[in-house]
Amino acid sequence: MNLPNTLSLIRLCLVPVFAWAYFLPQPNAHLWAALVYAAAFVTDIADGYIARRFDLVTKLGRILDPLADKLMTLTVITCVTADGILPIWAVVVFFCKEAAMGLGGLYLYRQIKDMPPSNWLGKTSTGVFFVVLGILVLFPISRPWATGLITLALALAVGALLRYAVQCFHLVKETP
Asked: Are 138 and 125 in contact (CB under 8 A)?
């Protein structure tokens, strides 16, 4: 267990803390939830930087890091949807996209015993999701605007999925 993996585990532990904070019956509950979400985002940036900078990338970390990201994002989008800010289809699209990536990753791991590194579109998508969901947690904006913002984030996420699919296809094709 190294520092980047520990940061990913901390991020996993923050997932239920976010949901708890979001639904606290207090006027500043969403602010507390946003702070938890921001802490998760900072640990995401830190673990990736530390892992690459100090050559601490591990197979466990390549599983824990995206798992923590996806569970946090799924939790935030679900909470915001349960609060009536987003339509349910946004959660369904996000979940289906993540399920496809998870199954694809499992297939790839079984085929070549490795996972592809993250790509710029995936990182961009994660950043856009953080900003969009952060806005939706903190500010009361109208549902049409919220739907437009989440549609942008989901379009980037689906684009990242397609890019990963192409990457995985080439990896499997090149493996003897």
From this structure: no
Q: What is the largest CA-CA distance in the chain?
A: 59
Which comes out higher in pLDDT, residue 14 or 115?
14
- Give pTM, 2 decimals: 0.90
C-alpha to C-alpha distance for 44 and 39, rounded to whole angstroms: 9
d(CA 67, CA 73) in angstroms, rounded, equals 10
Residue whose pair of structure tokens reads 């915001």 in the numeric block: 80
CA distance 66 to 61: 8
Angle at 118 between CA 113 and CA 121, to 5 degrees: 145
Say which residue, 134 or 173, is predicted with more confidence: 134
